[in-house]
Design goal:
The longest helix has 17 residues. About 30% of the residues lie in helices and about 25% in strands. The strands form six sheets. Strands 2-1-12-11-13-14-15-16-17 form a nine-stranded mixed beta sheet, with helices on both faces. The chain has a six-stranded mixed beta sheet with strand order 8-5-3-4-9-10, sandwiched between helices. The protein is built from 16 helices and 26 strands. The chain has about 500 residues and is of the alpha/beta class.
């Protein structure tokens, strides 16, 4: 398929035929998606919204989410995406930051939408309902591909989120890259089980399937057993899930009894992809595990492909995308300047000054290396090191080592305070069987892991806390470690 830089999502949707979505509300064709989004756009216009106005959409996943996003584009409105699990403080912050009206269902996750609007100080609240749309549609002219069409947020795990500006062409840039990396054919079936407003959820459900006309399976909110059932029922070929989600799929007792033979590819990421679990997923499903390394701000920076050797595919972030012009600066920090990059944060000069160098290059905050064959490896984050007695220990390296123990189902490592050394590595784990710190140390020693990369505290949890974007909430774990190991 040849893509024009002038095409919009509305153009793709109007062109496509067949099934667009399998959702909790039912199955929708592309024609129905087109019709409902045009009719909802008409309701926005009739309600007095003007081009350039901002509408914050707070919904769980499903057809209505994408209809609301596309309706806003058709009416010339900018969507402010709010994660379905966002708390009142985050919602209030995003409404105040963007000046947006708030759109919800009549009830959101068991709570009246009107109550949420009142509690969060919304200056205006509208209720969205696919069964209560005008008879006539509205088609435009709407937003163009280089206009800001979406304001989404950082996942909010380090405080109140910053607001990231996105053009449609920023997000469309994933399309041909994903198509080539996975060798996508004409008959793919996508399943995107991520929160829709964030970068990964946006490209994998709202943008790329529309670009290529692929039917997409959507869930209201992620549930491992339900996701397995849907993959089997709809013969999904391409699964899109963050790391924590695919690990929960592997941990589900239903995994072994589910027919996953249709799966060819899983795009994952959003956080570290543990080697042992990625290899297990490939062995148990026959699907290849791929990832884009990037961020909400940077877009796609590198990508692994189905043609990469298995060890390269599973142990690196793939080869950098040439047009993103990756450079390692300072102590190996990854910087980029390319078509996937955001124009910047909304009304935040200080944050933009930290994000962009004076020469316009975007700083990711990640530290990496590139090997002789051109593969990128992420070795840590500027802010994700444990400083033990003056020595920097990468939390990512410790996590990778711990994840290799057969009793570990999931792990996250953060710094715990220490009165002598300043910080020590604390591993929070979800286990599949008995595990002590001594057991873990014996395993790491036998595997040749250097002692500097051994955790010094082990805390078992029934599940790792997740932030609103579906990633592990390390801010919550750091706060827990600060309390648990408080220095007198």
């Amino acid at each position: 398929m040849s893509d024009s830089s002038r095409a919009t999502i509305a153009d793709y949707v109007a062109r496509n035929s067949g099934v667009a979505f399998h959702t909790p509300e039912g199955t929708f064709t592309w024609a129905e998606y087109d019709d409902r989004s045009s009719r909802l756009a008409r309701s926005y216009v009739d309600a007095g919204f003007a081009p350039g106005d901002r509408l914050a959409v707070l919904l769980t996943g499903g057809a209505l989410t994408h209809v609301a996003y596309l309706a806003a584009q058709k009416a010339g409105l900018v969507t402010v995406g709010i994660g379905p699990r966002a708390g009142d403080a985050e919602i209030r912050h995003l409404l105040e930051k963007t000046g947006a009206a708030l759109a919800t269902r009549a009830e959101h996750r068991g709570r009246p939408g009107a109550d949420i609007a009142a509690a969060c100080g919304a200056h205006r609240h509208i209720v969205l309902d696919l069964d209560a749309l005008p008879a006539e549609g509205f088609a435009g002219p709407g937003l163009g591909p280089d206009d800001i069409f979406f304001l989404n947020s950082t996942s909010g795990t380090t405080g109140l989120p910053k607001v990231v500006r996105q053009t449609l062409n920023n997000r469309k840039y994933f399309g041909p890259l994903a198509h080539a990396a996975a060798r996508l054919g004409p008959d793919e079936v996508f399943a995107s089980v991520l929160p829709a407003p964030y970068g990964f959820g946006l490209w994998s459900a709202h943008v790329v399937p529309a670009m290529y006309g692929y039917p997409t399976v959507l869930t209201a909110e992620f549930d491992a057993d339900e996701t397995l059932r849907l993959i089997e029922r709809h013969r999904v070929t391409v699964l899109c899930a963050v790391t924590a989600q695919f690990i929960m799929l592997l941990n589900s007792p239903r995994f072994a009894g589910t027919d996953l033979s249709s799966l060819r590819v899983m795009f994952t990421g959003g956080e570290r992809v543990p080697l042992a679990r990625a290899r297990e997923f490939e062995e148990r499903t026959g699907a290849k595990v791929l990832q884009f390394y990037g961020s909400n701000e940077a877009g796609p920076i590198s990508v692994t492909t189905v043609d990469d050797p298995p060890e390269r595919r599973l142990t690196t972030a793939g080869r950098p995308i040439p047009a993103m012009r990756l450079e390692l600066v300072g102590e190996g920090q990854i910087s980029v300047a390319g078509p996937g990059c955001t124009p910047g944060y909304l009304d935040d000069d200080a944050a933009n000054a930290a994000l962009f160098r004076p020469d316009g290059r975007l700083l990711t905050g990640d530290v990496g290396t590139i090997d002789a064959d051109g593969y990128l490896s992420i070795t840590g984050r500027i802010a994700d090191f444990i400083i033990r007695g003056g020595h920097n220990v990468s939390a990512l390296v410790v996590e990778e080592a711990v994840a290799g123990h057969p009793a570990v189902a999931a792990v996250a490592v953060v710094a715990a305070p220490d009165p002598v050394l300043g910080e020590r590595a604390c591993a929070y784990v979800v286990t599949r069987g008995p595990l002590t710190l001594d057991d873990l140390r014996t395993h790491l020693d036998a595997g040749g892991v250097g002692k500097q990369n051994w955790p010094e505290h082990l805390v078992e949890l029934p599940g790792l806390p997740l932030g609103t974007g579906g990633k592990v909430d390390k801010a919550a774990l750091r706060a827990d470690a600060a309390r648990r190991f408080a220095v007198p």
